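Entry:
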Amino acid sequence: MENIYQKINDLSEKYRDFTANNLSKLVKIKSLTSGEKDVQLELKRQMEEAGFDEVFVDGLGNVIGRIGSGKKIVAIDGHMDTVDLGAAGNWSFDPLGGEIRDGFVHGRGSVDQKGGPAAFVTAGRILKELGFDRDLTVYFTGSVMEEDCDGLCWKYIIEEDKIRPDLVVMTEPTNLGLYRGHRGRMEMQVHFHGRSSHGSAPERGVNAIYIASRAALEIEKLNKRLAPDAFLGKGSITVTEIISQSPSLCAVSDYARIHLDRRLTTGETGESAVKEIEEIVRGMNAKVELLSFSEKAWTGLEYGMDKYYPTWTVPEDHEAVQKGVRAFTGLFGREPVVDKWTFSTNGIMTCGTYGIPTIGFGPGNEVLAHAPDEKVPVSDLVAASAFYAAFIFEIAG
């Protein structure tokens, strides 16, 4: 493999400008969730230019490129939607400029997470140039709608496209570390019902805001006693919104609702998390609701799922992790940092829901995700394109 590693390193460096320029083109195209059409067509063009065996757009709008036609299936995924730009005054450069300077590609989505797909396009070009012909099918997926609903794209790919990989690589930013999991999450609302009365005589009513407030304080206590996990850390829960209504501003509130952000560590499930809240609000005339997501993709197709995103980890001694370590070490002469993400990814669906072994490796530092002055080192893009190609050779044997 040593000779292959050197060839891959040489080619990834040769295509440094190709990768950076491709990313610049992607960054210049604004692509909020459900508005990814133009960026998807550009990614499709880039895959075709790189010589992929097949490139197509599925019904949800995911762009899927294929190299090889073997029995074993590996997928390399990166989502193409981004969050919005935020306050213009917080940026020191044009967030949609895609400027390449000082060794970085600048702009929204450069880290989270168009850099990964730009790198995997180059990896595909490297595989084709090296005449990759092993008994392996590699799908490169530029996926959609992740920012608003992690994993929805992979629910569609597996259930509707009928593509079920044996192994998945997520290209979300890892600062060139090798990641093997992250906490799960879920979104809940709790509805509280009271009884209105005139504001001049609040004792005649039952104030739903007070009931919700008491529950919120108990939820704060719950957060402090949630159990930790040695690898993923502690789960968490917080109230992120409270909304109320009453017949008028001179009346006691008869309804209140709180929104909960719940992060789930190992051993915690959607069912256990709901039961914890139901126990807190028992006797409060309240109902706990797990929220769902349903929106139209840029293709016009409406698709959805519950807002429950399971925790997932892959053991450090798993073949996928160990072959990732081997590819990294062979390319760069040192061992990678093996760690986890702070945030959530499409891995909640591939591994958390379907049990498909999933690892992560991506260019850029996740602290810049969703932040102003987002930028990714070109050197990270080069390293990532080399890693994806080398990993495929490792998996192919």
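The chain has a mean pLDDT of 97.
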